[in-house]
Design goal:
Layout (H helix, E strand, L loop, with lengths): L1 H4 L5 H4 L18 H19 L7 H15 L26 H5 L1 H10 L2 H5 L2 H19 L4 H13 L3 H4 L6 H19 L5 H15 L3 H4 L7 H4 L2 H4 L2 H26 L15 H10 L5 H4 L3 H14 L1 H19 L19 H13 L6 H26 L2 H9 L1 H6 L18 H10 L8 H4 L3 H22 L5 H9 L2
């Protein structure tokens, strides 16, 4: 069990839940934990506001927003009557997607009814969710007894050096699933360390995840199978499980069933189109190695993350098994689906929820090597290169609107203008020139690329610069504040009596 591989918490620490760890639990760090968490949250949020689109271009996101609009204006859950154009005829009269994102948008839409700027306010949902995920990743690192600096590094790897940055610009549900999956992982680890509230967090994470995507019943809940590796059976069959973990999960299932009954008059139904008939080898190769959807191209640090997960399997086996189970299940599940590529999106959309695990794995490689040793120097040099590549890919992702390139792919005359073959959009997954990265470069090379960030496009470049400076300051403070205090002055004082 993980409790045999990690130090057991003190009695005082065991009484604190996921969000209640005392500030003094960061030994030697310059800043208390709550302050570091706030710096990480608001620092990454400033980045996301800087690149915000303030509009949803993708079909799925527009359908979920239409539910929000009808809920607020007419008290209904349909997608019709609010300007949603169902070009694929798959989302009328009801959205086939989870109710979660539509509900998260309600308070922002309600505020817009009084102050205006609805597109801007509703676009805040995923930036806030992703910044919250950054904080959860930081807490996972601390729950694993990592140094605060290592935990903060893992959080920033996900927050600014992964494809999560682009997903803050649209209204997809995957960022929320990433939050729920990360919270579930944190709850499982904290339960093994004696937290009394951890079962409640696990139940809430599992129950909420299926409100965003029904596949979470498999791709997120599968992680619960590892609980016996972390928690003794006497606890699993006791009050914490029955009284704290299962009720939120039951409520989540009840909410999903009720929504299905309302839409389809069936309790159990697959509301997504497509079939699970893609050859597994084809889908896996597409998600991991295709030029336009490879996890490792759009998240270069995931390369290091693979090595880190192997290290976790060796050093902290239960945690490694948990990470591996969540990753393999998600890859296999979506590799078989006919829409494995996620259609109009940036990178392997369906793998976003497990990207935090790869970022944690990447930091495990760093913390397992000594900086002074050659292997430690090599790891840090490779990490620097991967971070630079990640930032370059992310900068490209938010520079051009995704719909501009997909409009090119769907329009024969525009394809001919850019010298593309007459193949359909699916062909882009296997060709650099047709893919989003190659496509964005093509648009920029022809000086035809539109400007994606809202403030920049509206002529408020100064706001973008201010947000970038603010983000840099806050995130630098988060890293500095999570590093260890210098002890040289104290050591000298004890020696000289000063």
């Amino acid at each position: 069990m993980v409790t045999e591989l990690m130090d057991r918490p003190t009695v005082e620490e065991a009484d604190f839940g996921v969000g209640d760890l005392p500030a003094s639990s960061t030994p030697g760090a310059r800043f208390p934990e709550p302050l570091v968490a706030c710096l990480l949250f608001f620092g990454t949020l400033a980045v996301y506001l800087m690149v915000m689109r303030a509009r949803f271009d993708v079909y799925d996101c527009r359908a979920m927003l239409a539910v929000t609009e009808n809920l607020m204006r007419h008290g209904t859950l349909v997608t019709t009557g609010v300007g949603f154009g169902d070009r694929f005829h798959q989302a009328t009269p009801y959205s086939p997607y989870g109710i979660g994102m539509s509900l998260l948008g309600v308070p922002f839409y309600a505020l817009s009814l009084h102050v205006g700027n609805m597109p801007v306010l509703v676009s805040l949902v995923n930036p806030l969710v992703t910044s919250a995920t950054v904080v959860v990743i930081w807490r996972i690192g601390r729950a694993l007894d990592w140094k605060a600096w290592h935990a903060a590094t893992a959080a920033l790897f996900y927050g600014v050096a992964s494809m999560a940055v682009w997903y803050t610009t649209e209204g997809f549900s995957e960022p929320a699933v990433a939050f729920c999956l990360s919270l579930l992982v944190l709850g499982i680890i904290r339960w093994s360390k004696g937290s009394n509230l951890a079962p409640l967090w696990i139940g809430l994470a599992a129950g909420l995840a299926i409100q965003f995507r029904t596949d979470a019943l498999v791709t997120v809940w599968i992680g619960l199978l590892t609980l016996p590796l972390f928690v003794p059976w006497r606890k699993l069959v006791g009050w914490p499980t029955w009284g704290l973990m299962l009720p939120p999960m039951a409520l989540g299932v009840a909410g999903l069933v009720a929504y299905n009954e309302f839409r389809y008059h069936k309790a159990v139904v697959s509301s997504y189109g497509g079939r699970f008939d893609v050859p597994l080898r084809f889908g896996v190769r597409g998600l991991l190695a295709s030029p336009d959807r490879s996890l490792f191209i759009f998240n270069p640090l995931a390369v290091l993350g693979v090595l880190g997960i192997v290290l976790l399997l060796i050093k902290v086996r239960p945690v490694g098994i948990l990470f591996l189970l969540l990753i393999v299940t998600r890859v296999v599940f979506f590799a078989r689906w006919s829409s494995w590529d996620g259609a109009w999106c940036w990178g392997p959309r369906f793998l976003l929820p497990v990207v935090p695990l790869f970022m944690l794995g990447a930091v495990e490689v760093i913390r397992s090597t000594r900086p002074a040793a050659f292997i430690g120097f090599l790891v840090r040099a490779v990490t620097a290169v991967l971070v630079a590549a990640s930032l370059a890919v992310n900068a490209l992702s938010v520079r051009v609107p995704v719909n501009q390139w997909f409009d090119v792919l769907y329009t024969p005359s525009r394809r001919l203008y850019y010298g593309l073959p007459a193949a359909g959009v699916g062909y882009s997954n296997w060709d650099w020139n047709n893919g989003v990265i190659g496509g964005y470069v093509t648009l920029l090379r022809h000086h035809n690329a539109q400007i994606a960030p809202y403030f920049w496009a509206e002529g408020h470049g100064g706001v973008c610069v201010a947000l970038l400076v603010l983000a840099g300051v806050l995130l630098a403070l988060a890293l500095w504040g999570s590093s260890a205090k210098s002890v040289h002055r104290h050591a000298r004082s004890r020696t000289t009596g000063e």
